[in-house]
């Protein structure tokens, strides 16, 4: 295998830390060529020193010889005092810097200096903490930050979830859990893998193993869309459970319910079932996700977790596949078509039989109206009053 290089760097936001003294660090999600994803933390002073060395290594590309040849992006110098406002306002520039950096020629974007700077350090996995010091405050960059770079979120109290069972990690990017562990969720991915932190540990965890503290989490899920949304299968999958579907790469299906654990309810022709959302791509999208699926597996389903212990008396609402199928607009339409056809056939039969039945059917006789004496003798007081 070749040398490691970075495919993508995404700025997640920044943290305000209080140990050993108050300071700010930026959070980066670094995606590597082996499809691993790591979160690293860097102070802006570190980033600026890295930037200065990079310019010295490539004087032509930095514009030191001829400004017209500059392709290395600009980065403003740190202020005399970097407070929260300057840290917040710098996020747009820093996100753009990282995007440009990884798209530079390989001699720059894949050089040892860049690779080494964004590699996971010991303090990324085990940040210095003190139980007596205030918990760090997390500020996340909005998903639509490209449209509104100044619209940065305020201090976020990360959602706390509880592990319902033990989970053993299967890769270095994941995090192991014990039943009852309380984790803070940094990022919820719709593929069913959530990025969490637990004390000094961070990593990806299957959403199926987590439940919110304040109640069952189906309230966070979208309502079913029985009209269906067209998607294309990017990776084949063979059903393991009875309520799952087996599909091949390239199949076109319709998504009718997007669930938090990354297993979506889909419809193929008249059949519905569960399928891993990470193996699907919305129809018409240009960017293919095939290259990212080679070494990744679907997250486990909640129904397959053994010894799951919820703290909530009320369980998660379950919708049966028969309910999904019967509420499907295609199913309803097909039923209407069948009823229409059967009615037309009945009409045809009647029309064919009419010439054979020349006799008109006898109409039922209208019963005679009861007499006044009969009503007074046999009816209730209320009825008798009406004729008096």
From TrEMBL:
One of its GO terms (biological process) is respiratory burst. This is NCF1 factor. It comes from Oxyruncus cristatus (sharpbill). Keywords: Cytoplasm, Phosphoprotein, Repeat, SH3 domain. Gene3D superfamilies: Phox-like domain, SH3 Domains. InterPro entries: NADPH_Oxidase/PX-Domain, NCF1_C, NCF1_PBR/AIR, NCF1_SH3_1, NCF1_SH3_2, P47PHOX, PX_dom, PX_dom_sf. It is found in: Cytoplasm. Residues 4-125 form the PX domain. Residues 353-372 are annotated as: Disordered. Pfam families: NCF1_PBR_AIR, p47_phox_C, PX, SH3_1. PANTHER family: NEUTROPHIL CYTOSOL FACTOR 1-RELATED (PTHR15706:SF6), SH3 MULTIPLE DOMAIN (PTHR15706). GO terms for cellular component: cytoplasm; NADPH oxidase complex.
């Amino acid at each position: 295998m070749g040398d490691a290089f970075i495919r993508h760097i995404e700025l997640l936001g920044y943290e305000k830390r209080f140990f050993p003294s108050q300071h700010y660090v930026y959070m980066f999600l670094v995606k590597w060529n082996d499809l691993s994803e790591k979160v690293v933390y860097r102070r802006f002073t570190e980033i600026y020193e890295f930037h200065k060395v990079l310019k010295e290594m490539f004087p032509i590309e930095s514009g030191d010889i001829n400004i017209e040849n500059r392709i290395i992006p600009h980065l403003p110098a740190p202020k005399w005092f970097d407070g929260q406002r300057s840290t917040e306002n710098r996020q747009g520039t820093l996100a753009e810097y990282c995007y440009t950096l990884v798209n530079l020629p390989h001699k720059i974007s894949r050089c040892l200096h860049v690779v080494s700077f964004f590699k996971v350090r010991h303090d990324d996995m085990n940040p210095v903490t003190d139980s007596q010091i205030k918990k760090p405050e997390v500020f996340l960059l909005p998903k639509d930050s490209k449209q509104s770079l100044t619209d940065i979120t305020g201090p976020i109290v990360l959602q706390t979830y509880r592990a319902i069972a033990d989970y053993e990690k299967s890769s270095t990017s994941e995090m192991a859990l014990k039943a009852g562990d309380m984790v803070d969720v940094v990022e919820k991915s719709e593929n069913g893998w959530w990025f969490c932190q637990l004390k000094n540990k961070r990593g990806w965890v299957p959403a199926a193993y987590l439940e919110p503290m304040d109640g069952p989490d189906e309230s966070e899920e979208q309502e079913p869309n029985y009209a269906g949304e067209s998607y294309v299968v990017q990776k084949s999958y063979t059903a393991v459970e009875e309520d799952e579907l087996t599909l091949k790469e390239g199949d076109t299906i319709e998504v009718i319910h997007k669930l938090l654990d990354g297993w979506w309810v889909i419809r193929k022709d008249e059949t519905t079932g569960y399928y891993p959302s990470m193996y699907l791509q919305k129809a018409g999208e240009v960017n293919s996700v095939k290259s990212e699926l080679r070494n990744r597996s679907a997250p486990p389903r909640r129904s397959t977790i053994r010894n799951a212990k919820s703290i909530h008396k009320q369980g998660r609402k379950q919708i049966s596949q028969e309910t999904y199928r019967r509420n499907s607009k295609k199913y309803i339409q097909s039923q209407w078509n069948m009823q229409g056809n059967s009615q037309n056939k009945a009409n045809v039969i009647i029309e064919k039989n009419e010439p054979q039945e020349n006799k008109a059917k006898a109409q039922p006789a209208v019963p005679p109206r009861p007499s006044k004496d009969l009503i007074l003798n046999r009816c209730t007081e209320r009825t008798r009053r009406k004729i008096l």
